[in-house]
Design a protein that fits this description.
Helices cover 6% and strands 45% of the residues. The protein has helices spanning 74-80, 102-105; strands at residues 7-17, 22-27, 41-45, 48-52, 54-60, 63-68, 84-88, 109-112, 117-126, 131-136, 147-152, 158-162, 167-170. The radius of gyration is 21 Å and the shape is elongated.
């Protein structure tokens, strides 16, 4: 089985639902039902990574429930409760040219078009209108910045993302 660096957490197994081995599922995917697009799921049980399959699933009230293969009763679900659901990164769909998963951008060096090193992408978040990168500034930042929030706007602010050199070129003023 693969090591943890090749896996992504996509959800969590919740409390039992009923007595026939169904479990509540918390999904971290863009659309909650999207978690069922991936199979198999990986869980870490007793220190070992184990594959599990979904037998059936459905929407229940405002949440999701699933029947897992080999899980037949409430007690078995209870032993899985709160375990994270992971998938192999290879299970993610291929993106179009110029598209990137956030996990690829985290850790990339951010440099202005004029060559000023702004720092490293620490995380990204959504605002509703656009995504935003939080860039951890270098220790020797001439503008005494600790971090910068830079909108992720391709062509407008983001000029180039280079996977090979792990750099993002931006049109952004260092003092902003």
């Amino acid at each position: 089985m693969s090591d943890a660096s090749e896996t992504l957490v996509v959800g969590k197994i919740g409390a039992p639902y009923g007595v026939k081995g169904w479990a509540r599922i918390t999904a971290y995917t863009d659309t909650p039902e999207g978690i069922f697009d991936y199979s198999p799921w990986l869980i870490c049980q007793d220190g070992k990574q184990v594959e599990i399959q979904v037998e059936q699933w459905r929407q229940q009230s405002k949440g999701l429930v699933a029947k897992l293969v080999g899980v037949e009763d409430r007690d078995q679900v209870d032993r899985l409760k709160n375990l994270e659901i992971s998938i192999l990164s290879e299970q993610l769909p291929e993106l179009e040219a110029g598209e990137f998963y956030w996990r690829e951008l985290v850790g990339m060096q951010v440099v202005t078009e004029k060559g000023y090193d702004l720092g490293v992408v620490r995380e990204l978040f959504e605002t509703g209108s656009n995504d935003v990168m939080i860039v951890q500034a270098n220790l020797k930042d001439a503008f005494a910045k600790k971090e910068r929030m830079i909108p992720y706007l391709p062509e407008q602010v983001i000029k180039q993302v280079d996977r090979a050199t792990r750099t993002i070129k931006v049109d952004w003023e260092p003092d902003f």
